[in-house]
Amino acid sequence: MTTIGFAQDALSHWHQAMATATGGKIFTTHGCSWAWQPARARLVLLFPAHAQEAGLRPGLAEGTRLGARRVEAWVNSGAPSTALEAAGFSDAAQISWHAGELVGPREPWDGRVRLGTEIPEAKGADAKELQVANLWRDPAAAGLSAGHPALRRIEQATARTLEGELVGRAFAQQALGGQLAIHGLAVAPSHRRAGIGSSLLNGLARGMANPLGLDDQSRIELIAAASPSSAQFFEANGMRLLGRGRHLVLR
Fold this sequence. Notes:
Blueprint: H1 4-21, E1 25-29, E2 32-37, E3 42-46, H2 53-66, E4 70-76, H3 82-86, E5 89-91, E6 95-101, E7 111-115, H4 124-129, E8 154-161, E9 166-174, E10 180-187, H5 196-209, E11 221-226, H6 231-236, E12 240-250
Parallel strand pairs: 3-4, 10-11
Antiparallel strand pairs: 1-2, 2-3, 4-12, 5-12, 6-11, 6-12, 7-8, 8-9, 9-10
């Protein structure tokens, strides 16, 4: 059974993989686990059980040394946050954890969904972050110990119209329980509510869990951290609300 703790672990593994794939690093300071993602000059604090000044101070100092322009913290809703608030963190949009078996799209989208990292349109940080989908293919180059959860399989899917226009993308990482953790799902504003997001979920699920398409009745469980604007979408695709968490930003 998928729990909030399990979902938190899945998100931590994703941020660790993104840090490693983009030339950053993961490190700890007195009970605080951090992921430095240089492609966006972002430092992320990952679910401290009880953040204290002794862990926050050296972590933030390292972020300053590295040139962080944005510092975030993901926190369990039940974890104390007094030290975080004293350090200058405040709540961004509340997140909700969703999990459940994927249901097929109600109406097929008239376009193409493909797995892969060949996106000629990708520039800057977007292009660098595509490397996260190749991390598991070359674990020796990652600098992490064998079996590290950040090295679990990651795939990226793109959605294009029949004319070839890129209109959506999403990542999925294989979680430790066999679920697929969804990250970075985005659809172009002018193409939303057309079934593209659902097609991306189904394309990732088929490609990762059943690439030959031999059994269309495969049961595939997904996990996602939803923003207020995306919660309804995930629920429409078969995912239930697990609970809520906190996403904080250093102001």
